[in-house]
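We both want to read discrete structure tokens more fluently, so let's practise on a single case. Once you have written the record down, we can walk along the chain together.
***
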Amino acid sequence: MSQTLRMRSLLVMGASVIAISGFAVPAFAQQAKPAQPAAQTTVIEELVVTAQKKEEALQDVPIAVSAFSQDSLAAQKIDGGPNLQQAIPNVTFARSNFTNSFNFQIRGIGAKAVGASADQGVGVHMNNAPQQSGNLFESEFYDVERVEVLRGPQGTLYGRNATGGVVNVITAKPTDKFEANVRAEVGNYGSTRYRGMVNIPIFEDKLAVRVAGTTLNRDGFVTNTFNNHKVDDRDLYSTRVQVMFNPTEKLRTNFLWERFHEDDNRARTGKQLCTKDPGPATVGGVATGASRIFLSQGCLPSSLYGSSAYGTVNTAGTLTGLLGNIFGFTSGDVNAGNTTSTDLQQIQTALDPLYRSASNTYQFTLNYDLTDKLAFTAMTSYGKGTVYTKQDYNRTVSLVPFNNTPFTPGGFFNDPQVGNTNKFTTIDVSSGRSEQFSQELRLQSSFDGPLNFNFGGIHFTYRTLTDYYVIGNSLTLSSLALNYSKTGNPNCNPATTANCIGIDTSATPTGDGHNYYDNRTPYTLTSDALFGELYWQANEDLKFTLGLRQTRDKKAVKNFSTVLLAPGYGLTLNPTNPDQRARFSELTGRFGFDYKAHLSFTDDTLLYAFYSKGYKGGGINPGVPANSVGVKQTFDPEFVNAIEVGTKNTMLHGSLLFNATGFYYDYQGYQISKIVNRTSVNENVNAKVYGLEFETIWSPVHDLKLNANLGYLHTKIGDGVSSIDTMNRTQNNPLYTVVKVGPNSPAVGANCVLTTSGVATVLGLGAGTTLPFACSGAAAYQAFLATPAALGGAGLPAATAAFLANGTGLYNYGAGYSIEGTASSLAGKELPNSPHWTASVGAQYRFDLPGGWNATLRGDYYRQTQQFARVYNTDYDRLKAWDNANITLKLDKPEWGVTLEAYVKNLGNKTPIVDAYTTDDTSGLFTNVITQEPRLYGVAITKSW
């Protein structure tokens, strides 16, 4: 019997299962109805998986793995990767702030680093081949044999970026039997979804073709109240062609081509929240007056659930607002008096989002039996993709027009990229193209003796070019104003004029202009590894496993500086290190045993315990402004030493499966990111992680299936770890005051910290409007103060300039403080996106109806407790607990091959915040929140042949 046919006999209505460093419960299959009612059984059949890259019954695999067939995915309404968290303990999922990126997190370990060279903590594979960039976030599951989610470090067999675990999508393969199906679905939000498959055997069991596809079209969940348009819609399709060619019994091959395409108004980020920071009315008892606008950071670190969170950014606390106020084309906060709707499904943007994504994946798998006991496997995979997204950087449209100035006559400005408008408008564009190739060779034995092995090697290459633009009319205005102040000509030519900022006049940015922000990252990864596992069957019940993997990673980035508002034109390589490289070579592995215990109260029991060492490569931080200091160019790799013990039990004559696992991680160098000075800065923290997982499936009577999962997770960052919280640089110390960084610094628009007494003195002397220029240090501040006004300075007498810079105590910092602020201790804090408890329960009942019909009613409920979005664990970071419930009703007429289905997802119509992204100082520290989908319902019909 072919592998696919064998799978199909087992995969029908599975729940989830667990196996390595945890416990494994197999997905359950629907039982065939026996001829005699007295012979009915409630035995739960097992699912066959390839978690160890060989076919094994799930209950025999000492790995924590949750497995889902296509039918179980449909029954539990797991349409794609984001829904998996609702059926697996200790798993969370949220899309990221950036294009085609997400955080699939297992046991607190995921992808909190940001940058082209940052790896996922959970490896994503298709048919066991790694996918550095794929469409797990965007696409849907269709015509799959199963989806496996392996929890815990899987570095030995699955590779370098699997410290958290692995998601492995196994597509349904061609078979030697004709079969086909087509499914049509309609739902709310104008949703239409079509799926289909046809499997055509051409020559016996030697040649067959399988073609499958899916499409999704629906209206948007989100309303743009500025133009009353529905956004965040979907218009996508995916197709897959596979060819099976088995010229002999020993040689079996499969070729796959999958294409994905999307062109719609998908919203890359969610609603924007902000507790407005008006800036202090007084500092040290001195009124701030007109200088107050330079003392706001834009947004305050307050709870995302309070009414104040629906305020708007104080634009005076942003880069563009700061420069607008300095050069006069704005006055104060252009969002003054504006608030946002408390509905998380409403935004206000001048531009509807645009999302375009396309990819092609090719795979060729060859299996050859060298002998009856020795098999050779070669897997080749190649993928290529592009993505382009464009959206309004802000989620509010300012109420206040530009001032009437020579640069903005009548309050209007015609920006080459934004167009002609009288409002503060900022757009971000995220785009990229990628290419990847992998070749894996593996030799696997199945000897009758006590020793067996699985040895192999893999070569992997990945190349990508990403651009992240922030384009704004106020940035171009600032460029013109700076050019005028420095050269006397706002439209100067940077090729012939010193200190001239080059302005890109193209409607579509070329990347050469210095009047916008472009973080360009050409990145190349080459990874090679040798791996192997040795299995010793000490006796009939006891087996030992030893696995080792030697990995070598080479990463290279063309180190382009970000050149916003810098003199010149064109992209600029970092003069100190134009080609940033990082190399890592690590030995990892696992060792442990599994033991089949013979207990009086179980039918089968597997006990296991493993130690494993995992590794994820370090990387290269994205580009920073030239001459920036205090930002490391690289970040370190991650390591985890993990201990896991588990048990997997079959009980009550096969009607009950109960699995449990416990795990402990000593995690070194977990990578986290924060946005500083208009770029991502990745840092490393150490942590201890431990937890428990329980999963059970029970069929107490024929046709009734119950399942329950429970996960407990405890994470704790180690001692001696600290980091500056950009939301609270002073840590509420009244001796220090936050000030916006002025245009005499490469960090213009960011925030600095000066002494409160010094700020009060400068304010008292009437020089408060010069404070932003103090953020570059005493020498630069004094130089600015003494420079004649005609040359862009303050034009103060030399003695006054010297006193303000050196005699006011602006820089008299106490222990632990600097111009950047003070670091917050992270010791004892929880890792982000790590709720203590996750739980899910499900129940389904099948009953017969007249006329040969049968019906299956299923309900699922999921809940996770509160978590934190950042490592600082402040009230601002706290994300509340949330839950979700789904229900489905399916009617089958096997004689006709017809299935009717009705479903409701998210019965309570809740849209909880599941993650949050904090932007940097120059953007005003607003928060983009990620939410769950609203209530969805629909009906579908499927015809099978």
About this structure: The two ends are 20 Å apart (CA to CA). The longest helix spans residues 473-487. Helices lie at 3-8, 70-75, 155-158, 319-327, 473-487, 756-764, 778-786, 798-806. The chain has eight helices and 54 strands.
